[in-house]
Every structure is written in C-alpha cells, then in structure tokens.
Amino acid sequence: MAAAATPGVAEQTPGVAEQTPGAAPQGAVPFDLSQAPNIEGFSPLPKARDETFKEKFARKTKENPFVPIGCLGTAGALIYGLRAFHQGKTRQSQLLMRGRIFAQGFTVVAIIVGVFATALKPKPSPP
Predict the structure, then answer these.
(1) Residue 86 region, left (φ>0) first, then alpha (ψ -120 to 50), else beta?
(2) DSSP state of 36
(3) pTM, 2 dp
C-alpha cells in the first residue's frame, strides 16, 4: 500500500533551493540597464527635435495669436499708465489702469480658449 501525499505540502526535488514566486533566479540580473526596457503594448515615439526659443515663440504665436496681442496691450497700458501717473495726470492714469485690467482679462480668456482648442484638437496618429 502506497502512502498518500499530504494535501497542501509541495514536493521538493533534492538540491533545488526554494524560491519565492516572482523573484529572479539566483545569479540572474533583474534588469539589463544597457538596453531600454521592452514594455508590451508601448511603442516610443522618436525624440522630437529640440526647437530654439525663437522657433517655439513663432509656433505658439501662430497657434494662438491673441495671447501675445493681449500681453502687448497689458504692457502698453501699464507703461503709459505709470507714465501718466508720474506726470500727475490722475484721470488718464486711472483710465489706463482700467484698460490694463481689461487687457489682462482678454489675455487670460485667450489662454483658456487656446488650452481648450488644443485639448479638443485630434491628435495625429503615429505612423
């Protein structure tokens, strides 16, 4: 009569060390740092060309031209308002400061519209 195996006890072969599930075998390196990792379902895009400040500014201005216009309006109203204040023209200074607030509001709205327009724009599919 053969002895029945006890349930729940795993049989071990002699000479093989017990390993925890998911652990790397003894002597194996878990990651090969000389190569990029291979992630299933992920294909990296080629690195985009670095653009200069001038190129990026031109591209962003073409994408949303109202932001630089609003910034220039804000700066212009601020400079002329401060100049009028320095010259003692309080009424003109007040009007220019109100114009600056309007220009700042215009710029903020232009930024928000640009963000939404960019988010809603369909992304180009990779080749």
Answers:
(1) alpha
(2) -
(3) 0.56
